[in-house]
Amino acid sequence: MYFGVLGPLLVRTDTGVPVAVPDTKVRTLLLDLLANQGRPVSADRLIDDLWGTRPPRNATGTLQARVSQLRTALERAEPGARSLVQHGPAGYTLTAEVVDSNVFEQYVRTGRLSDALELWRGQPYADVPDHEFARPAREHLEDLYLTAIEHGDDVLQQTTALLQQRPLDERLHAVHLKALYRAGRQHEALEKYAELRDALAEELGADVSPALAELHQAILRHDPSLRRTATLPEPLNDLIGRDETLAEAHQQLAANRLVTLVGPGGVGKTRLALELGSPNAHLVELAPLRQDDVLDALATALGLRDESSDLLPRLLDSLSTRQLLLILDNCEHLDLADLVRRLLAAAPGLRVLATSREPLGLTGERVLDVPPLSAAASVELFQTRAGVTDDVTAICERLDGIPLALELAATRVRALGVQGLAERLDDRFRLLAGAKGGPERQRTLRATIDWSWDLLDDEERRMLRRLAVHAGSFSLEAATQVSELPEHLLLALVDKSLVVASAGRYRLLESVAAYSLEKLVEAGEQADLRHRHADYYLALARKADLHGPGQREWLRRLDLEAANFRAAPLSLELATALAWYWYLRGRHGEARRKLAAALALPDQQPELRAQAMVWLAGMLATDAQGTDVAAAGEEALRAVGDDPHALWFLTMTRWAYGDATVLFPRIDRAIEAFTERGDQWGLAAALSTRAQLNIVRADLPAMRRDSLRSLELFDALDDDWGRLQATYALIVAAEISGDYPTATAYLEDAIQHAEDLGLWTEVSFRTAGLGRIALLTGDLARADELHEQARRLAVEQSNKSAEEYAEVGLGLSARRQGRLDDAERYFTKWLDWLTQIGGTPGIAFISNQLGFIAEQRGDYATARTLHERGLELAQQIGDQRAIALALEGLAGASEPPLLALLTKATALRQQLGTPLPPAERFDVERIQARVPPP
């Protein structure tokens, strides 16, 4: 049965047959049950919702009659459908099969915005606009609707229409103002803000909200954050003369999943692609990459956590549920056809926009030739860039309408004047008229760059050719130190459009970079500059302080240099210097590949080699591919000796799955050594790891003692990553003891720190942690929302551990709500993966959860088998709380329940000092209720 609430009430069968629901009160009853999303609604509440202060004489009987009418209407349309309306001790529940609002929310959460908007038929719960029971659901759905509009297409059209209905809605106005600004209508956006401010003051006597006032200021200062997407570079000037091409490209992208912009160098393919970028676009600059670096660059651009040895499957898995535009810029030197084919096949919501000098050659590829500018557009571009109104038609004809050539020439007007520029170009092109080698337009661009080069002085030429060793963008510091030339030369090249400046970074356009590299080789400087480039980026990696207050800034800076690190020659020095950065950013797969390759190089320093072995062993511990992690760790420790950092790192990366009898002595030795050395950061890190190890023992005093000391040290060091580590066991301890306010406070603080650092896997784990607290405090709708949010983040990161944690939470909530089939599906999905990675604690927990499900269905034999499996695994790892859980399950896996086992479990928990808090007694109380009275 399908129910629709996004507009007037809609009910139909699975085959599409409309279902008539008679009587206004019956329809209101149905909407009330739908608004409560499968939660029971008491009879008293329903009576109040339906009749308010004037209930009928026999209110309970009248309500029962309306329920009967609803069941009859459903049964007539679909035999057996009357069972969708259930009655229990807590009240009436509608077990709706499909509700359009649920589908709508799922689409918005997963980025399928166009699909979501197609479901919207009008105001949610439109049949009951004045009923309080529908208000929370309506407001929630309307917020989601605004989110979908803001990040979808036709924002202006849709917000303009909505404002006629909701003229004082500040959230809607915020979306509208941003849309106006992004459309280049800043003045109109400011006018609309002023109109709203005056209307609020006049009609409500209120000021605009602080958030809207801040948006107004951002519009005034042209804040870059207002651009349609922060993932794309900020163009510094307007796109001129491309209206028709842009419109055709938009049309092709809407109708095709792979569009390739093809044209000669300098014709403006990249600039056009950036203009086509949408809020969900991600740019991968391919010009500086080698074939082997493509997957790593893709993962970095998408913010994907790379944990496994084989990156491609994780990349495909991450993209499979996402809806985004991937811009692959400058593809011509790489073989990308098979990769793009596999990406598109695995990700239905993916569109690819490529720029290249030739098509990729894939079936279904739509090739769009990017032509040179028309004569009129060439004149407009040149005059705009040069700041003149003179007749420049002759100059533009010489330059064949190639935007880059026009841009380069326009910078010379100030020095040469229009007439002088025209004469110089005539002389230069006359000399090159008989030149061969490439299409005419390519010769034109080459001649223009060559001419621009000749107009530089010797020092400017030296700077330009030396900049060619950088990959992608670079900083002013990098440019000056690698070139060994003063910064004013770089700034002069920016003025001449030979270097592009954006947000404090600099880069060479692909055509200029290729030309400059030729000049570098001709000058015989390539080897020396490559060496200086490698030295600079190695020194930068070594200088990066990823411990303490500079952590966030250094992470951001190293992120910006990813292409340059990949372009530098592989060395053990660089791999070990970047290892901690790779770990923090979840680039474990790249770290493993680079460390292993570096270790294979000849003539290694023994001490450096030992350090690299430790890093590699720790990174291997994060892989889920069955590597012999323990053996790698032991070999590394033999090489490095009893170094406390090695002892800590190889414990920290294995605490959840390793052998506690090995890990506890190892971390104790690390703590002792850090204490003797006075290494505060190392001591704080090791204490947080020991606190986590004690989670298995459920030693709450030890967990709190080590965590609080760790947090104290990390606070003194102002280390946000450390705070995340230190509070983990504190959160677990608070949850175990039922102190949910404390757990919530730590979780919310951790999410803020993780977001600041861009550690999205940590955000996922902590968001799921908030979901657990919502579950335990009885807010199951909020629990599902948080767990789903965490799951979505984990999928985007391709982090299986975080995804498993979130989905297990969804399973726990589903079981609490009696949705046993859903719960079983969530749990069983992860058994194979947990077996693969050796996740024995997780297997034990899921075995018990599946045992409870079997028991709730009355299948006591299956329940007993599953709980016995959980008990066996819990005993194997020595987790006393898991043993108690299995005993509780076994107590219920018989008819009648075995109270002796419940008593034994209770005694064990009391002995541990971790009695079940009231919120976690769901199964115990349910099993006790099955015991027949004496």
UniProtKB/TrEMBL annotation:
It comes from the Bacteria. Keywords: DNA-binding. GO terms for molecular function: ATP hydrolysis activity; DNA binding. Gene3D superfamilies: P-loop containing nucleotide triphosphate hydrolases, Tetratricopeptide repeat domain, Winged helix-like DNA-binding domain superfamily/Winged helix DNA-binding domain. GO terms for biological process: phosphorelay signal transduction system; regulation of DNA-templated transcription. SMART domains: BTAD, Trans_reg_C. Belongs to the AfsR/DnrI/RedD regulatory family. This is Tetratricopeptide repeat protein. The lineage of its organism: Bacteria, Bacillati, Actinomycetota, Actinomycetes, Propionibacteriales.
